[in-house]
Amino acid sequence: MSAAVVLMAYGSPEQLADVPAYYADIRGGRPIKPENLDDLVDRYRQLGIEDESPLNAITEQTRSALERELGHVPVFTGMKHWTPRIADAAERALDGGADTIVGLVLAPHWSELSIAGYREQLESALAGRAMLAFVDSWHDEPGFVELLADRVRGTDAHVVFTAHSLPARAQPVYKEQLLETSRLVAERAGIDDWTFSFQSESPTGEPWLGPDILDHLEELHAGGVRKVLVCPVGFVADHL
User: In this structure, are 15 and 32 located in the same domain?
Assistant: First the structure.
């Protein structure tokens, strides 16, 4: 048996000129409001995308580190909404002789509205040409929990764990796993003063999971909280 890993991330444009095509890919043919596109371009400009794409660079660093850790198992990067595509990564793995593909997404929590899409792309690309072992979630992986605990351990601030919101129609398992990660991190770090909220809701016209972090911070302030440490638990790397 010859194995390979397809390491998947959301993807990010390399330069401002790429943002319209990137956003169109995310929208999947659905109408794009000019004001939403303008807002996205502005946020990438503030991020400094013309210097480099942090997400793509960090993903490559992660791929290289994982490959070193695994030894003789090659690791290929595939992006959901940019290049190199998940299908490209699958082809490179197959060309290298792999008959077993491990699919791993750099997002620890399962949702049929997010992780399932990565799996569908990878399954379609493989088309039965190799056995697929797909990691649905790894939200309670001890190493991941310890890494996040290191980030918040010893703080005297109120800790707000956050993750990307999804439409409210998402199955409950997504929020359940996020809260489980938050609880495990807090326990590991010895923190009692913490809450959870969502961020990055998109303007789709339908209800999204809450509370939103901006509303939540207002509530904390109204309740007398003056020091807050925000700890994203749903993102392994840079997220806009």
Answer: yes
Here the CATH number for the domain that contains residue 125 is 3.40.50.1400
For residue range 43-75, list pLDDT tens digits in order: 888 877 776 667 788 899 999 999 999 999 999
Residue the block writes with tokens 């596109």: 37
Token digits of residue 133: 């072992």
Residue 87, class by beta-carbon neighbours within 10 Å (0-12 exposed, 13-18 middle, 19+ buried)? middle
Q: b/e per residue, 114-138, with b = 16+ CB within 10 A?
A: bbebbbebbbebbeeebebebeebb
| Token pair belonging to 153 | 């351990």
Task: Read off the pLDDT of residues 174-219 as tens digits, 9 standing for 90 and up.
Answer: 999 999 999 999 999 999 999 999 999 988 889 999 999 999 999 9
